[in-house]
Write a structure and sequence with these properties.
Shape: elongated
Number of helices: 0
Structural class: mainly beta
Helix content: under 10%
Radius of gyration: 12 Å
Strand content: 35-45%
Order of helices and strands: EEEEE
Distance between the termini: 34 Å
Largest sheet: 5 strands, antiparallel
Length: about 60
């Protein structure tokens, strides 16, 4: 799967929702929401999946 800057992702094995900061040299650099690139950690693309909320939240 190809990830792009700004995608919301989560480790396949579980973990926090992160934002893709950059994709470079075959690695996906992810940071916690609103953390910025200085805190970004590299992941292999196969370790991540796009974040998807489950359930129907409807309109209040």
């Amino acid at each position: 799967m190809a990830f792009e800057t700004g995608d919301l992702v989560q480790p396949i094995k579980g973990g926090p929702v992160m934002s893709v900061v950059k994709v470079e040299d075959g690695l996906v650099y992810c940071g916690m929401m609103d953390s910025g690139i200085e805190n970004a950690k590299p992941f292999k693309p196969e370790e991540l999946s796009l974040y998807k909320e489950d359930g129907d939240f409807g309109v209040c």
